[in-house]
Amino acid sequence: MQINITGHHFSVSPALKKHTLEKLIKVCKFFSVAIHADVIFKVEKFTYVAEVSVHANGVDLHGREKTNNPYTAIDNVIAKIDRQVEKVKGKTLKRKRKGKPLGEEIIDLTS
Questions:
Q1: Residue at 109 is within a domain
Q2: Total structural domains within the chain
Q3: Cut 0.85: pTM above it
Q4: 21 — alpha (psi -120 to 50), left (phi > 0) or beta?
Q5: pLDDT class of 97 with cuts at 50, 70, 90
Q6: Residue 8 falls inside a structural domain
């Protein structure tokens, strides 16, 4: 797992890095293959922007959030990423279940 945390026009404190890593690890537990995540914090006028890109298992997840507090921004963007993960997991489960249900074998009565 590789996580890059950077700040544009903003120095990321160790406490903010720790908080971000704790949140991202919860998202990363859904994927079995190595993950690459980029987190970018920006300051635009008087608001903080958090952008997160997660690349894993051939899936790219992106989120962006703008608030007055960097901790709130990362919490909100991780919530968006969580929803995307749930959607992807639901799609993969649907594909796995597309086969015929048990007990519905085709019986040929013409012979």
A1: no
A2: 1
A3: no
A4: alpha
A5: low
A6: yes
